[in-house]
Design brief:
Double Stranded RNA Binding Domain, alpha+beta, 130 residues, three-stranded antiparallel beta sheet
């Protein structure tokens, strides 16, 4: 499911870490806020997103991502959108149900025959009696 960038609220903040005086002057890091409940995503994806045990999802159902890898505001916005899309993609994957199967009778017989042969080989490893 493709995210609509208009549903994501961006706010520019000051980045942390090295960068000299530029870090103190320019707000190039981004906080991206995405309200799951108010989004246009299908209900089943919303429910799966809200059920995720992720520290980036608040109790109100808002995903908060901080992007500060780049010194460019636009690049950080794209990074936040890409990470948010990855989170939605992860929630939209539904694993197939596992159907338990039984081994066939011939495979059971082969396994037991192999065990018997292995036991016979081990029995012959003992010390030779005179």
């Amino acid at each position: 499911m493709k995210l609509d960038p208009a549903e994501v609220e961006f706010s520019a903040i000051r980045a942390q870490g090295p960068g000299g005086q530029n870090v103190n002057k320019v707000a190039c890091a981004v906080h991206a806020r995405f309200d799951i409940r108010a989004s246009s995503l299908p209900d089943w994806i919303k429910a799966r997103l809200l059920a995720l045990r992720d520290s980036r999802i608040t109790d109100d159902g808002v995903v908060v991502l901080k992007a500060q890898q780049s010194r460019s505001l636009e690049a950080n916005k794209e990074d936040a959108l890409r990470r948010l899309q990855a989170l939605v993609d992860q929630a939209s994957i539904v694993q197939a149900l596992r159907r338990p199967t039984k081994p066939t009778r011939s495979s059971q017989r082969r396994r037991l025959d192999a065990k018997t042969r292995s036991g016979q080989v081990k029995a012959l490893r003992g010390k030779v009696k005179e």
